[in-house]
Amino acid sequence: MTGYRFTIHRFMAVLRKEMVQMRRDRMTLGLLIGIPVMQLFIFGYAINMVPRHLATVVNVADPGPLANSMIAAINNSSYFDIIKATNSPAVTRTMLAQGKASFAITIPPNFSRDIVRGARPDLVIEADATDPAAGSYALAAMNGLATTALRDDLVGPLAALAPKSAPFNVVVHNLYNPENITQYNIVPGLLGVILTLTMVLATAIALTRERERGTYENLLAMPTRPVEIMVGKITPNIFVGAFQATLILVLARYVFDVPFIGSLALLGITSTVFITALLGVGYTISTVARNQMQAMQMTFFFLLPSIMLSGFIFPFRGMPGWAQAIGEVLPITHFLRIVRGILLKGNGALEVWPEVWPMILFLFAAGTVAVLRFRRTLD
Amino acid sequence: MDYAINVKGLTKRFGKKTAVNNIAIAVPEGQVWGFLGPNGSGKTTTIRMLCGLLKADSGEGTCLGYDFRSQSEEIKRETGYMTQKFSFWEDLSIRENLEFVARVYGLPNKKKLVDATLEKLGLTSRQRQLAGELSGGWKQRMALAACTLHSPKLLLLDEPTAGVDPKARRDFWNEIHRLSDDGITVLVSTHYMDEAERCDQIVFISYGDIVAQGPVAKIIADSGLITFTIEGDGARELAETLRGQPGIEFVAFFGAMLHVSGYDRAALERALLPYRSDPTLAIKETAPSLEDVFIQLQDQAARGNS
């Protein structure tokens, strides 16, 4: 076997072949560039964790001034958009059932009078809680409204009815993203998700396509070695990944105004580790999958937990322990913490390292499986 | 005599099925050997084992002087293997395919070599065309040129002419003989009898066993087959009547002519006697063709296996 180690000329032969094939496959190349841009614009603009202007129907049975002030305050809060006023409980219920309204607010008869009498009337809010997250910010805002809405009305002889403030102040600092802008969280997260999708898929298909077209047998019959094929096939994808990452970051900076506090060099280095780990996964899949369809299915099997369990959309710490354990294995979970940490918090190498070594570990595990799975023969 | 291929005890199993069963082949350098046998008989598996694409379960021997089990890397460098299905890259141009092969083998003067090969193929003007756009015949020619680009000493061809028109087939075989004249050893599997007849020796394999081996004339002589031809208007109806009669091994059509073969001359004559007097039928004894022997060997193997 001596004298047949990794050679540059065979690696270059595979690399050049891959480059030509990639250039010729306009569709795939277009997708590799189109997917990140499209996803970034769609998800960047579409996903909003702090939904405002939620459709609200009101049922006001009290013509009094305090009820009017309350309605005005609700409408001004920017969380609620009053789309309809009605006197019929049946109508409000129907609108909730049909999803035309997210909230129904009922102000009972004699609301103003009961307040003045100190009878503490009930203001009833019915929320469509099929999606618990959707209305939570609005409902939290409602509690604030309760204390402030009637401040201007409860003066003079009514001042005693005005709610007392707590005997201490709650001081909240929203660090790193004071305005709770969802895009600051989602756009850097999309970097991880988009790279996961395209890198794993492109690599998973690489070897499977050769097998499906019968060219794999030819490749094996020539003196090309597995490691030359593997590195030759993976290298172009590293460039594609780097290009995608750059594209996403430029859009993040100049279109979505995501803060770039930390070091771009550090982000570049950690991204490379992440991309390489993903290519390892893709290559492992391509040594297992018999055809491109299977490769695609396996890619999605990997992609779904990467989206759901990584903390991309749902808070990581909110998941049960076993789900967090799965999440900790996935490279994207660590990468998301790194990107958000570097961009939003200005984290340096020291803060980032605890998230880097799990990715390196993953890379070695995936690489080992890929090399072990790669057969130099057809059986 | 020096052998390009000299292996024995070659065996390959896939699960419970034995694809190749303890076969021995010794091909002297510079000869063209034909590999015959029905579909699924183990031809492709044998060829793949010889060039290291499949691991033999057992067997020993050499290919080009290298141990075929442990030195497949060395064998690959000096062997050209043409797969049954076109296995070059259809999304690369003809030139790019040849250049890739030249790079993989690290051939010197790559550009000149590729230019010369394209010229020889007559594809210089179409070198930028994608390989996938070529017709079947041209694909075969390109594949042959690509797998001989590195001047191999041994050529393994797996049904290279399947689905190729007769003219292209003839050209292809002329090329094989030209290569053979240059000293290359060729092992070629085929279903075509005329191609088999152009080989120095043939190996007939069935259900993983070698059932006959040698030069065409010897295989025909060794078969012990006696064949009569029947020609005429009623020949077609006669086929069904004769089939299965005592003394008749098998009945087969060759064009419009009926071949009736058996081992026992007396029994065969007896079976044909009633039709001798029919003026519309011409019954003559003939030398059995390779195809007669091929069918007989195949029938025998099938019977022995069931």
Report on the architecture of this protein:
The complex is a heterodimer of chains A (379) and B (306). Chain A has 379 residues and is mainly alpha-helical. Chain A has 14 helices and 4 strands. Chain A has 2 domains: 8-47 and 181-373, no CATH class; 54-161, abc type-2 transporter like domain (abc type-2 transporter like fold), CATH 3.40.1710.10. Chain A has a 4-stranded mixed β-sheet with strand order 2-1-3-4, with helices on both faces. The mean pLDDT of chain A is 90. Chain B is of the alpha/beta class and 306 residues long. Chain B has 2 domains: 3-215, Rossmann fold (3-Layer(aba) Sandwich), CATH 3.40.50.300; 226-287, Alpha-Beta Plaits, CATH 3.30.70.2070. In chain B, the strands form 3 sheets. In chain B, strands 6-7-8-3-9-10 form a 6-stranded mixed β-sheet, sandwiched between helices. Chain B has a 4-stranded antiparallel β-sheet with strand order 2-1-4-5. Chain B has a 4-stranded antiparallel β-sheet with strand order 12-13-11-14, sandwiched between helices. In chain B, a hairpin with a 2-residue loop joins β9 (201-206) and β10.
State the end-to-end CA separation of chain A: 21 Å
Question: Which pair of chains has the greatest number of interface residues, and how are they split between the two chains?
Answer: A-B, 28 and 28 residues
Structural class of chain A: mainly alpha
- Total number of distinct structural domains of chain A: 2
Helix content of chain A: 55-70%
Number of domains of chain B: 2
Structure class of chain B: alpha/beta
The biggest sheet of chain B amounts to:
6 strands, mixed
CATH class of the largest domain in chain B: Alpha Beta
Indicate the low-confidence ranges of chain A by residue numbers. Answer: none
**Mean residue pLDDT of chain B:** 92
The CATH topology annotation of the largest domain in chain B reads as Rossmann fold
Gyration radius of chain A, in Å: 29 Å
Q: How many strands appear in the DSSP assignment of chain A?
A: 4
Strand order of the largest sheet of chain B: 6-7-8-3-9-10
Mean pLDDT of chain A: 90
